[in-house]
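To start, an entry.
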Amino acid sequence: MKVNSSSHRFIELASKDANLFLHHLSAALGHCPCHHCREQGAELVRVAQSRVLHAMDWAQASLRLHEANPSSSSLAVALGGCLELYRDAEPRLARLVSGESYSGDDAVTWLSGVVASHRSCLDGLEEKGWLFETMEAQNLTFWLSEALAFYGARSNRRDRNKGKLLISVFA
């Protein structure tokens, strides 16, 4: 059996430090329980959460302005929809950074829902004539996408490698 250089490094690492080897293997399989890996995902979510809170504040302030103007009632409805979507989305992000237990699939589902809510808000505003591709909107989209990519990659690795523990070390 031919052992490639990556597999050789894993075998060498296993022989030197079993704990470090298990950490790297767990991370590669998407099951890394270490503080650093969990904290990396939590930090992405914290930034996205702060952007969602900022979007909620913006939607609330804009709604107050447009409620006072009867000619912009359809825009006020769209802004109210955004506010509701962001209010529903924020607790999902809060749970991801709360320290309570959840699965990787839960994280992907919740983040996907938040991305869908954000996109729905932007689409609703665009339908009312607001082209809302500001830096803030792009920034929120970026951070949500980064968090989703982080948790999605971990979930995909885990699903792809179910039942294959250690096989890649020797392949």
Q: What stands out?
A: The chain has one domain: 39-164. Confidence is low (pLDDT under 50) at residues 1-10, 19-31, 159-171. The two ends are 8 Å apart (CA to CA). The chain is about 80% helix and 0% strand.
